[in-house]
Amino acid sequence: MDVVDSSSWRALVHFVDEWREISNLTLDHLEPWQIVFYTLSVVFFIQWARKIAKYEENLSLMWLLNDILIYLPGMQKKIEGFKEASRKEIEEKLLRFDRKKEFYRFLPDRGLTTEEIVGEAAEYKIMGDALFSRGLLSGASLSDNDENYQRMAQKIFDMYNSVNAIYPDVFPGCRKMEAEVIRMLAQLYHGGPKSCGSITISGTESILLACIAYRNRAFKLGLRKPEIVIAKNAHIGFAKAAKLLDIRVVRVPLSKNFEVNVSAMKRAISRETCMLVASMPSYVYGTMDNIDKISQLGIRYGVPVHVDACLGGFLMPFMEHCDFPVSEFDFRLSGVTSISVDLDKYAYCPTGSSAILYRDEEFFHFQCFTEPRWAGGVYVSPTLSGNRPGSMIALTWATLLFNGRLGYVEKTHRIIDAARLLREKIQDQIDDIEILGEPALSIITFTSRNLKIPIHIIGDEMNELGWNLCFVQNPLALRVCIGLKYACEEVLEEFVEDLKKCCEKVLNNTDLVYPAKTLAVYGISSSIEDFGISEEMPDILLTSLYATPVHPQRSTRTLSIEGRKMSLSQHIGFPSLLGRDAVQKLGPSPKE
Ligand SMILES: *Cc1c(COP(=O)(O)O)cnc(C)c1O
Fold first, then answer.
1. Which among 85, 101, 133, 87 has a CA at the least distance from the CA of 578?
2. Domain boundaries in the chain?
3. Left if phi > 0, otherwise alpha if psi is -120 to 50, otherwise beta: which for 156?
4. In angstroms, what is the span from residue 442 Cα to ligand 1's centroid?
5. What separation in Å is there between the alpha carbon of 538 and the centre of ligand 1?
6. Disulfide: which of 154, 226, 272, 441 matches 218 by Cβ 3.0-4.6 Å?
7. CA nearest neighbour of 415 among 349, 364, 338, 491
8. What is the reported pLDDT for 577?
9. Which residues have CB under 6 Å of ligand 1?
10. Cα of 372 to ligand 1 centre, how many Å?
């Protein structure tokens, strides 16, 4: 043993000595200042590169190559062509259910009669209904269709639609409602007497407000460049908030279960960290982060922890009452400092209702904008808007009271039962489909195990059958979010049958070559072909969102008295783009 040890030791010494000599010879011609200068330069360069890599998530060789390719001669023209093709594809998608394709382009000279307006609004409304007749499993609508509830909501809206929540003394009832809603929510999440918060109009606003609060707190504590630490499964609202607030995002990788990798999160915490985020559950994968451990990290490093319970916030508190155990996620964990919850999701309030809650007023005050010296008076604004619609607050209040604790327990039971059933059915009946992670609540994201079954093509096939699903990229997958209306066995049975059929159909179509549809577009139920111009997609999409195209065949501008430029010609190929059911529902076209 000794002999081996000493000989290997000697070899090492020899090696070091040799290396030293070679280095001395190579650097011989350099002056000492040069050596110091070069060394420092290399160190600073490495530090700089590491920093860039930490914050620039899109930095990869592929992207760099892409950027270079774009500047090759002839590429620009080609890209323009791709852009036009993609724009056309999206526009066609958005307009495919519009039979008339006429648009109001001018304010009508005379106001229309109420009957006309209501009639037209009804016509606009059914466009999408016809398209996705089988079910909106994307979670695009989670509303409660209970007639009794709808009638009540109607009355509440009539009473409160001109109430403005920014005037608490003019509309004291509305102030009382908001205060009560916040109190009820704080109690639901086991907040103490100092818990507080506000009602907002969307999850994104709630998230943004939390980021504002923690950024302002960080500034107060003397941090110069606050960072938020979020996982790659976090909702996009955090990235939006960070961009708006000019704070840095440190993105933590996921574990193989699509949950945050807690040890990576620990490593990501720095002196500048102002907020940690846990998703309960994650919007895209429906998986739950380990909030217990994240809360402990928060306590250990003195960093506030925000729980994004936008989706699960009205399922989890009721699950234990129907024998679906969930881990504690709220203010019972002492590291958790704020919770965002969307009330227009599983609290079944009308769209445009969310809330942000804090453990302590200290955090809440950092969220609010105040100006004691404005000419208009001492100004205090807790949320982003100035004037705030009282109708939304009243409807939220009424919806919570309408359901009550037991109502939510019963509805939660139905949702979670259905989600588990669907998961089992998919796992048991379709071998080629794989569910991502461990979805615990109402979201199930699945992909294909079989290379011969491109999952987005399955999505298109399901669309064709009248199902509306979410398309996910990275990894390519489809996402289902179960709402009350579809939380029943027959619907899910039908869904799984169709999914099975689609898989078989695609598998049997061996001679068909499918386009590489790999770009998912949020909010649009399909994906589009990736020509390598995904950077351009946002611009294309923005143009399409506000498109009111003029039909090329109608060059003569006939301005009707109602302010609508008529374009009577039927869209070519329209019925083939629609599902069969949809065409029947829409009835004969006006030409016929
Ligand atoms: C819905 C949701 C949000 C908020 O999204 P909005 O588009 O603002 O409604 C945030 N996080 C999660 C997990 C969500 O499900």
1. 133
2. 2-61, 190-368
3. alpha
4. 14
5. 20
6. 226
7. 491
8. 38
9. 202-204, 235, 237, 279, 283, 308, 310-311, 342
10. 33
- Return the pLDDT at 591: 37
Residue nearest to atom 4 of ligand 1 (CA): 203
The pLDDT value given to residue 2: 53
Contacts of 284 (CB under 8 A, 6+ apart): 233, 445, 472, 479
At 525 the pLDDT is 73
pLDDT digits (tens, 9 = 90+) for 417-433: 999 999 999 999 998 99
What distance in angstroms lies between residue 292's CA and the mean position of ligand 1's atoms? 22
What local confidence, expressed as pLDDT, does residue 336 receive? Answer: 97
Q: How far apart are CA 526 and CA 45, in angstroms?
A: 43
Atom of ligand 1 nearest to the CA of 280: 13
- Which pLDDT score, from 0 to 100, does residue 528 have? 74
Question: How far, in Å, CA of 393 to CA of 252, rounded?
Answer: 36
Helices (H) and strands (E) in the chain, counts: 19, 19
The pLDDT value recorded for residue 54 is 66
Task: With a cut of 70, list the residues of the chain below it in pLDDT.
Answer: 1-5, 54-60, 62, 130, 518, 532, 551-592
Contact 305, 295 (CB under 8 A): yes
Vertex 442 angle, CA 357 and 278, to 5°: 40
What the block records as the tokens of 353 is 């209702």
Q: Nearest C-alpha to atom 13 of ligand 1 is from which residue?
A: 283
Q: What is the whole-number distance in angstroms between the Cα of residue 209 and the centre of ligand 1?
A: 14
Side-chain-side CA neighbours of residue 155 (13 Å): 7
Q: Looking at the domain 190-368, which fold is it?
A: Aspartate Aminotransferase; domain 2 (3.40.640)
Which pLDDT score is estimated for 185?
97
Choose one of 204, 316, 354 to mutate for the ligand 1 pocket test, by most ligand atoms within 8 angstroms of C-beta: 204
Q: Residue 248: enclosing H or E segment and its boundaries?
A: strand 248-252
Predicted pLDDT at 254: 93
**Locate tokens 């529902």: which residue?**
585
